[in-house]
Amino acid sequence: MNEPIYGYLKGSKEKAELKAALASIEKEIIEIPCIIGGKEVRTGNFFEVKMPHDHAHVIARVHLAGKAELALAIESALAAKKDWESLDWFARSKIFMKAADLLAGPWRARVNAATMHGQSKNAYQAEVDSACELIDFLRFNAHFYEKILSEQPLSSANIHNSMEYRALEGFVFAVTPFNFSAIAGNLPATPAMVGNTVVWKPSETQTLAAYRTMQLFMEAGLPAGVINFVPALGAVAGEAVLTHPELSGIHFTGSSATFNHIYKTVASNIENYKTYPRIVGETGGKDFVFADPTADVDVLTVALVRGAFEYQGQKCSAASRAYIPASVWTRLQPKLIAETEKLKMGDVRDFRNLINAVIDERSFIKIRGFIEEAKKDPRVKVLTGGEYDSKKGWFVKPTVLLTTDPKSRTMQEEIFGPVLTIYVYEDAKVAETLKLCNETSPYALTGAIISQDRYAIQNMTRELRHAAGNFYINDKPTGAVVGQQPFGGARRSGTNDKAGSSLNVLRWLSARTIKENFVPPKTILYPYMDEE
Questions:
Q1: Is 196:249 a contact under the CB 8 Å cutoff?
Q2: Side-chain half-sphere exposure of 97, counting CA atoms within 13 A
Q3: Alpha-helical runs (H) found in 310-397
Q4: Tens of pLDDT along 9-40?
Q5: C-alpha closest to that of 103 among 126, 135, 127
Q6: Each residue of 475-497: pLDDT tens digit?
């Protein structure tokens, strides 16, 4: 069962605990070492983690790994492999199930607070991410693993056939993003649970919550060297790890550009590897909401506002473009603008704020650039938002753009910020606009349709079959739940290996078929050969 979501209501115990955990983070600067072979390693080459909503406030100093530390991490992973892989499958799974129980209890506020301050998530967004989703990943993956092991081939008379699900040879490289602590924990944990050993490079800006997650795994009993925690700059880590002959797999979430680089590097080194590396990646998105003339305006408004602006649009699943029929737009426009302008923006410590800061200065500058370019485009109108402020935190006001060009830049390119672009189409041109929706973006991660016509729903679902790996009907295109909506997309959105399902777990296993003959033959010739 999925982990229940805490409400953090006024006067609740969980709210008091979370507030206390937030206050604790504010009082000190945590020093975060690499953890290699179970030992803390300090390099003295620091990266500072700052609160995005208060960027003068440093909350952690991270020791960045260099080539030597990354080489040591690989050695430690390989050294730990034999004993870890030989451990009974259920004993391995129990470590992660214990981590889930610890996170559901005494560790919940600690990890949620780290996500809130380190990644500027409000209490609800942190709760559904670093608590509930990570708990679900750990518990469900153990269930999926058991299910996979139970799938065995047929046996015939005097023959016993079995399938052994082995870990991959070598080590797995996990590269994790800033925006979801659950993903950051799941990417190293899934390969490890099934017997692999891992080198884990977290995003620099997510390192505080990643470090807490690593500490959680260690408290749950994770043996030394199984997961090696090595914060590092991407270029340094890639050069040291991606060319290693024992690389057996890459578990990645991040930008399409980085994933392309990883793929090219692996391809150019393919003759050097002991085995063909498994490459599993979830990358970008340019996620859509498509409404037809029967759409319920209230449902559509919620899907757009929540889908586009929760966590400042920094979800690979965030609604970023919308196709609205003219008859619906006349009713939707005033409501959409009014609801967007009601949203409160500010510090995560004020639980009344739905909108917080974007992750860092680089993201702030990128989003600001998109907005300023849109303001100068005669085809685009800023309906609300379009403002930003970086004095205290990296704040970008939720922005709604209206374009007359369905191929304008903000309809095609991933922004990763709180910017939603609307294209209004003629009611009679649903078919043509569905074609536009399908062909405009190179991505195919998530999408939503809003309609009350069952025939239309069936038609849109069919026409947009390849446009999204996670498809939502009368809902926002975000918020996939482990075990319910396994997550992933194709095209330029990744390999679609569906985190939150047995499909992803299976990618980290290498099957061996074993045939045992109980009554083996003792003659060479076959009976049919007795006669001409």
A1: yes
A2: 14
A3: 326-342, 361-376
A4: 999 999 999 999 999 999 999 999 999 999 99
A5: 135
A6: 999 999 999 999 999 999 999 99
CA distance 487 to 464: 17
Name the pTM for this structure.
Answer: 0.96
Separation between Cα atoms, residue 491 and residue 504, nearest integer Å? 18
Radius of gyration of the chain (CA): 25
DSSP-derived letter for residue 4 is P
- DSSP codes joined into one string, 381-404: EEEE---EE-SSS-EE--EEEEES
Q: Give CA separation, 357 vs 31, 281, 307, 311, in Å.
A: 24, 26, 17, 8
Could you list the active site residues?
Answer: 282, 316
Instruction: Identify residue 384 by its one-letter amino acid code.
Output: T
Measure the CA angle with vertex 494, ends 365 and 263; round to 5°: 90
Closest by Cα among 122, 134, 125 to 22? 122
- Identify whether the C-beta of residue 356 lies closer than 8 Å to the C-beta of residue 310: no
- The residue with tokens 């993956």 is 141
Structure-token pair, residue 79 = 């050294």
Terminal CA-to-CA distance of the chain, rounded, Å? 66
Structure tokens at 514: 């074993």
- Residues 6 or more apart whose CB falls under 8 angstroms from that of 39 comprise 224
